[in-house]
């Protein structure tokens, strides 16, 4: 029926999106969802070029970065992806994901993400450790990074939407001055984590 996989996927996604009344959040995960899966590159991928042309503009497209688990994200890469998809990507960040190797747990600060990325993103999702309580530091330091991005955001029209999300983070440290420091973010997260552990220890029956 369809001349390509991309056109088939775009057609189905568009139909579902319209049937649901074009919701404000509707995410599509492409088959090529990171640079290493694109042939020969994101900007020259016939698959991604077709999706960019065919998907309705209200549909968000998920992207994980250079690899499935990306140690770094840069503005240059996001610009390339935005150009081919004709929309800002939604980053599905697998930095802390350990479902592929459950012998490992990632407890370091949110890092490897260049400053000034926020204006290039439609959103950011964090794929955490499988162990629930191990995610205090990842989520807390993500909040610190996020607040730093809000302060340095050069595009106020983007900041409004992101600010609404920032309120939901509930960071007890508030909006700290200065650029994001992974080490400082880690220290703040550890202080809050110890306080949370002590609070839980005092609860009846714990």
Automatic annotation (TrEMBL):
InterPro entries, sorted: GH, Glycosyl_Hydrolase_84, O-GlcNAcase_cat
Please give the superkingdom of this protein's source: Eukaryota
Please give the PROSITE patterns that the UniProt record associates with this protein.
GH84
Q: Which GO terms describe its molecular function?
A: beta-N-acetylglucosaminidase activity
Its GO biological process annotations read: glycoprotein metabolic process
**A family per Pfam:** NAGidase
Q: Where is the GH84 domain?
A: 1-150
Q: What is this protein called?
A: OGA GlcNAcase
Record the organism.
Answer: Rynchops niger
User: What gene does the UniProt entry assign to this protein?
Assistant: Mgea5_1
């Amino acid at each position: 029926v369809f001349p390509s996989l991309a056109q088939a996927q775009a057609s189905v996604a568009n139909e579902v999106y319209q049937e649901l009344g074009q919701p404000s959040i509707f995410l599509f995960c492409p088959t090529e969802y990171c640079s290493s899966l694109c042939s020969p590159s994101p900007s020259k991928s016939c698959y991604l070029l077709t999706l960019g042309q065919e998907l309705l503009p209200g549909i968000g497209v998920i992207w994980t970065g250079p690899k499935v688990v990306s140690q770094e994200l840069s503005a240059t890469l996001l610009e390339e992806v935005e150009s081919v998809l004709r929309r800002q990507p939604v980053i599905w960040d697998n930095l802390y994901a350990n479902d592929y190797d459950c012998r490992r747990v990632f407890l370091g600060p949110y890092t490897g993400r260049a400053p000034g990325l926020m204006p290039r993103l439609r959103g950011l999702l964090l794929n955490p450790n499988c162990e629930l309580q191990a995610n205090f530091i990842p989520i807390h330091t993500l909040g610190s990074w996020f607040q730093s991005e809000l302060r340095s955001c050069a595009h106020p029209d983007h900041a409004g939407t992101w600010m609404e999300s920032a309120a939901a983070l509930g960071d007890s440290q508030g909006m700290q001055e200065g650029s994001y420091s992974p080490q400082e973010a880690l220290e703040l997260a550890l202080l809050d984590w110890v306080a949370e552990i002590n609070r839980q220890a005092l609860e009846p029956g714990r």
